[in-house]
């Protein structure tokens, strides 16, 4: 019943969003005439080579109108962004409800594990669609925008993606991409699912072993202070994997759609770092207090470990196999 209600609300929101988009276009078309007048007035002033009191008064009025038009369009766009955020929230709630229903429905056969290529595509899409934080003049970026960490009392919600510090089969620790299932205020512990195992591996972890991922991208053009800076130490999700590794910021994003360029720690190189690789804002988090043990070789033929990248091979131009073997993976630095 809840899923039907969510579907109905999403349909309503999409209709409202469509109307807001139409209003935006109407507002833009209406203000176009005033912008043309501003341009023509400047051209006349250049032709006459003087700024008369008449032109000053006229331009003041035209710019006042242009400012009001821009603010009106901005308000409509903010309303549209709010609708989009609500739609995304409802879609996420529906996904979680469907997942829970599937977990507790014994009458249906178990779901197949998601293919690795599909998972990687979904993670890339999620990173691309992370909303850009757009504040009003004077507003400061909130926690979990770009590089700004969560507040001390923040509790991640079910469905939120986090970095989780877990013990591997061989006893070493690593930071993995996980999804929050629940949080217990009584024990101050999270239950999280390993994103790479489709819910087959659940971990109960204390808050200090969880780092919430950014919920908004920071705009380098308006809020550069909300980004990690060059040579800052971070944890970053290695491309085409679901594990976070220690890295150094090589280049911060220059435009809202840009990724970080990072250098991953790699002892096979003389300077200890890999060549630059691109990592999304949503997959780059503070490294302070997050040092975890390096893995020691622990080859096993009992299965495939798909999270650890063969660093030296990748950095020298060899493509990453979709399913590297466990002993390939376990020889890597974390």
UniProtKB/TrEMBL annotation:
Residues 285-334 are annotated as: Disordered. The keyword Cell membrane does not apply. It is found in: Nucleus. Keywords: Coiled coil, Nucleus, Transcription, Transcription regulation. GO terms for biological process: negative regulation of transcription by RNA polymerase II; regulation of cell cycle; regulation of cell division; response to endoplasmic reticulum stress; transcription initiation-coupled chromatin remodeling. One of its GO terms (cellular component) is ATAC complex. GO terms for molecular function: histone H3K36me3 reader activity; histone H3K4me3 reader activity. Residues 3-41 form a coiled coil. Residues 152-293 form the SGF29 C-terminal domain. InterPro entries: SGF29, SGF29_tudor-like_dom, Tudor_SGF29_rpt1, Tudor_SGF29_rpt2. Residues 325-334 have a biased composition (Basic and acidic residues). Interacts with dimethylated and trimethylated 'Lys-4' of histone H3 (H3K4me2 and H3K4me3), with a preference for the trimethylated form (H3K4me3). Component of some SAGA-type complexes. Component of the ADA2A-containing complex (ATAC), composed of KAT14, KAT2A, TADA2L, TADA3L, ZZ3, MBIP, WDR5, YEATS2, CCDC101 and DR1. Interacts with (methylated) CGAS. Interacts with TADA3L, GCN5L2, SUPT3H and MYC. This is SAGA-associated factor 29. The lineage of its organism: Eukaryota, Metazoa, Chordata, Craniata, Vertebrata. The gene is SGF29.
